[in-house]
Each structure stands twice: as C-alpha cells, then as structure tokens.
Amino acid sequence: MGTTIEAIYDDIGGFSVAQCIIISFIFYNFLGASWSMIQMAFAVKVPDWTCVANEFGDLQQLGTEFYSNVTQVYSNGSEFSEKCSVNGSVCINYEFSGAKTTIVNEWNLVCDYEWIPSVVISVQMGGVLVGAALSGQTSERWGRRKSIAVVTVWHICSNVLAVFSNSYQMFMACRFLIGIGIGGTYTISFPYAMEFLPLKSRGRVAILPFWTLGVAIFVCVAYFIPHWRYLHLGCAIFCLPGVTLWFFVPESVRWLTVNGRLDEAMAALARMACWNGKPLPPDARSTLEAIYSSRKTCSNAAKQYSFIDLFRGRYFLKCTLIMCFMWITLSLISYGISFGVHGLAGNLYLNIVLTNCVEIPGLLPVLWLMDRAGFGRKCATVVTFSIICITTVVVLIINIQDHGDNDRAVFWFAMITKLCIDNVWNVIQAWVSELYPTVTRALGYSIATTSARVGGMLAPFLVDLKKRVVLTYLIISSLSLGVVLLCMLLPETRLCVLKDSIGFSSAAANCEEGVVETIIVGTNDEDDDEDDAHERNGWRKQNGAEKSEEKTVLDPAV
Asked: InterPro entries given for it (predicted)?
C-alpha cells in the first residue's frame, strides 16, 4: 500500500497505459510549440539576391561616407550581387532567387533593414518570456489542465493571425503573440507530465525527444511548402488535435490534492487505474488526505504562492538563482545555434535537421548518467557542460590559428555543442521540476523558462557563427564553465520523491545539508539493480531501517 502519490501510481500499474495516454496528449502540444519556435530559422533565411539597376536609375544617390564598405562594381553596370551600395549610390530595387518565400524577400529586409529579422526573433522570445511568466502563475492558481487548454487555443489563433500579416511590423506583433503561446506550452507541459509519473520513470520521460520530433515534422513540411505564410497555417492545423487534451487528460492529481479537491483527485486516480486495468488501492483516499493535512500543517492551505516565494529562504534563493543562470545559458547557446543555422555552410533543411536531431545519439548515455547510482542529474550536467567548454576552446584555437578550414570546424563545433546542450536541457528540465514542491513547482519551472527567454532574446545578437565567431566562442566557454561550477552547489534529486508542500516535518532536515526525510514502504521489488540496492542499504543504515525500501523526499527549508 502506498504512503505517497508515487506509491499509489505503482499500485495502479506504474508506467502503463494511463501514463502513455496522458504523456502523449500533453506532449503533442509540445510538438506544435517546437514547430512554431524553430520555423523562425526558416522565416529569416536570406535568399540569394541581386541589386538591379536599369537605365532609369533605380539607384538612389547618397553620400559615400555612409556606404564606405563598397567593394565591387560590375562592368556592365546592370547587376550588383548582394551589394547594398556602389560608388555612393544605394540600391532600392532587389531581385531574389530561389523558390523559398521568407520574410526577407517578402519585405526586402536586406541592407538598411537587415537588422529586422534578428529583432523579430528577439520579440518572439520576449513573448515566450511573457507566456512563461504568466502560465506559471495561472497553472498554480487555476490548474495545469485548464491553463494548457487556454494556451493551446491562443497558440492556434496567433498562428492563423500571422498568416494575414501585411507588413513586417504586424508580423513582429504576431510573433510576440505566438511566443506567448510557446512559452505557456513549454512551462506547463513538463511539470504537468512529471506529476503523473512513478518515481523511476521521470528521468526516462525527461529525455524523450519531443522537441526533435516537432522539428523533424516542421522540416518535412517546409521542404515541400517553402512559404512562411503556409507554414504558419500548417502549424495552426497541426496544433488543433491538442485541444482534445481537455476531454481525455485529467487534472494533475498532485495539484488537486494540495488544493484540497480530494474527490476530483480520487476520480482522476480511478480513471488512471481503469485505463491500466488495476484496482484502486483502498488506502488511496487516506494517503491523499494525509498529504493535504501535511500541507495545512506546514503552511497556510489557502495561500496562493507567487514568484516572490521562490526567493524566500536560503534553499529556494540558491536553487532559483542558479537555475535561472543555467537556463539563460542553455537558451543562449541552443537558440543561438538553431536560429543561426542559415549561417552554416550547406543545405538549410539538412542543417536544421542535423542541429536539432543531433541530440538523439546522446540520449542513452545521458539517461545512463542521470539515473545511474553514484551519478545523477548533477553529474550529467557537469559532464556535458565540460564537453561544451573544452570543445569551444579547441575550436577557438583553430580559428585563431586560421588553418583555412574554419567553416568545417565551425560546423562540427555547432553539432557537438547542440548534441550536448539539447541533452543536458532534458536533464535540467527534470532537475528543476524535482527541486520544488508541488505548491511552487509550476512557478519554479516558470521562472526557469522565463530566464531562458532572456537568453533567447540575446542569442541573435551574441551568438553568431558567421560574423562574430571569436566573441561567440568566448561567451559560450565562459557561461559553460560558470554552469559547471554553480551546479555543484545544488542538491542531487535522483530517487527523490516529489515534495508536495513547503516546510519541515519532525523527521526531515534540509536537503541542501545532505540529510533527507525517509518514508518507509514495504517492497518486494526484485528487479532493482545492484547499485540502487547498495545505495538504499546505505540509507537504511543511516536511518535505522532494516527491511524496507526507502525513498528520498526533498524538504526545502523556508
């Protein structure tokens, strides 16, 4: 019989049919958000273009001091390949080649307007920031299910509105609205899914490549329909089935429990048990009542938590500040490479696929690291960011020495860095969800993703593998080293039961001090590997238990 929600999940089948259905519906919306985010890598692509001058003088005469970087004039005087000005004259008529229709050739965003695509990306990331901040608060107050349904409808409507953009200013505003939908989806989906999972399944689900699958779907569509308007419409249509989540996925059992809605929590558990073909354990109600009573004992049950609570107390302050820095670094590096993929040598579609699917070979090693006894979330983070730091320094040296093959070095640097950064992002998503209790989990994940959008807004300007290579390497190596050092200060959460409320129990101590609350439950699990068994035996000796399985509970101080 279970004394925690994780134990109840084990009693009704563990990771089985119910979890598969719930995870599939929740992360389907994640696929649409991934499509919507990465399509800006296509939308800002600059096609090959030519300045066209005819006998009527389609060149506007301007001062030569402003256009001092003029390099070449064609002898026939009729065409200037990607030259903004010639001998003091600025081009005002452009001809673009290729079948792709991006916002660049839609509104002639070259020369004086070449800065606009980067600003559009930053505005979108600003929208993601707003969406992440708002959805964290709404999902704590109104629930995960209702919030993600509203966000999904918002995301669909914003994409449809973008189709009718008649200027880059309107498109920029639409991308801000789309960003709100993306940020909300990212922020709600992961904690929502994690709260349905048994203890041992959290790490495995965390590394599932939903982002990669969403990108792959986008690339397949973009290859056959290379038009930014139709891609926005396609994204809206693709996201429509996500609205059905409202009818099939129950509200988070944890959220219902800590908010005192025990009848609804029992109904959700009964539905999951039915899907799994298992009976609901007879003590399930008493377990939920005990969890709710514990929350009332530890804190004010009627309290509505806010972002301010994430900075109260030494434990929360430390976790929040370090996680914010880590997520800024993740976003700056990952989106800097993803949105700058058009600057890499080679085919655009292939590069988008490679830079976003390269994480797949690293999934199993990262899973092994984050779930292996003696390693965990912290070790996986240190190893991957150390690889990024070392790779950056090596490629920086190659570029400084200039061996004449810098394009290839930059390409492989991008591949290795994306492999590491995308995989460690999966680890840190699980980590941040496990550091906070249920009453502030969505807020904690929200402030992390909000911080990531700050990195995403800066990425188009700071990470440039074509024009500012050396500065890019210095930024990435410095930030990666900072993450390696700071993450050592965070507690390990491997095999930790998710905490539901804020406060201490008499048997609990601060997790950051290395002492943990222990919950004793009977077990006959013969499938545990020897390392896990050895680790639990050490906990038994420490806490005086002899014939039981122990699960660690994070109990942060306030």
From this structure: MFS_dom, MFS_sugar_transport-like, MFS_trans_sf, Sugar_transporter_CS
- Do the Cβ atoms of 551 and 497 come closer than 8 Å? yes
CA angle 447, 237, 185 (to 5 degrees): 10
**pLDDT the model gives residue 341:** 62
Q: Is the separation of the CB atoms in 337 and 416 below 8 Å?
A: no
| pLDDT value of residue 522 | 34
* Residues 342, 346: Cα–Cα separation, whole Å: 9
**DSSP summary character for residue 327:** H
CA distance 182 to 451: 14
Average pLDDT over residues 394-421: 74
What is the residue extent of each domain of the chain? 5-45+116-489, 54-97, 496-553
| C-alpha separations of 229 from 60, 110, 167, 248, 392 in Å | 31, 20, 12, 32, 37
Could you give the CA distance from residue 431 to residue 194 in angstroms, rounded to a whole number?
11
Structure tokens at 89: 């004259």
Dist. CA 308–CA 208, nearest whole Å: 32
Q: Which tens digits make up the pLDDT trace of 359-393?
A: 777 777 777 777 665 678 888 888 888 988 888 88
Bridge partners of 90? 60, 85
CA 115 to each of CA 315, 332, 417: distance values in angstroms, whole numbers, following the listed order: 42, 18, 26
Q: Residue 133, by phi and psi: left (phi above 0), alpha (psi -120 to 50) or beta?
A: alpha
CA angle 146, 159, 168 (to 5 degrees): 135
Query: Tokens representing 272?
Result: 């999951």
Residue 371: its pLDDT value, please? 67
Q: For the chain, what is the mean pLDDT?
A: 75
Q: How far is CA 62 from CA 59, 86, 450, in A?
A: 9, 10, 44
How does DSSP assign 389-448, residue by residue? HHHHHHHHHHHHHT-S-HHHHHHHHHHHHHHHHHHHHHHHHHHHHHHS-HHHHHHHHHHH
> Model pTM greater than 0.90?
no
Residues forming a β-bridge with 50: 81, 95
Euclidean distance between CA atoms 3 and 21, whole angstroms: 25
Could you report the per-residue pLDDT of 34-83, keeping only the tens digit for each?
899 888 878 877 777 777 654 444 444 433 333 333 333 333 444 456 66
pLDDT for residue 537 is more than 70: no
Given a contact cutoff of 8 angstroms between Cβ atoms, the answer to whether 514 and 364 are in contact is: no
Residue from 37, 6, 240 nearest 132 by CA: 37
What is the CATH number that goes with domain 5-45+116-489? 1.20.1250.20
pLDDT in tens, 192-216: 888 888 877 777 777 777 888 888 8
Residue 546, burial from CB neighbour count under 10 angstroms (0-12, 13-18, 19+): exposed
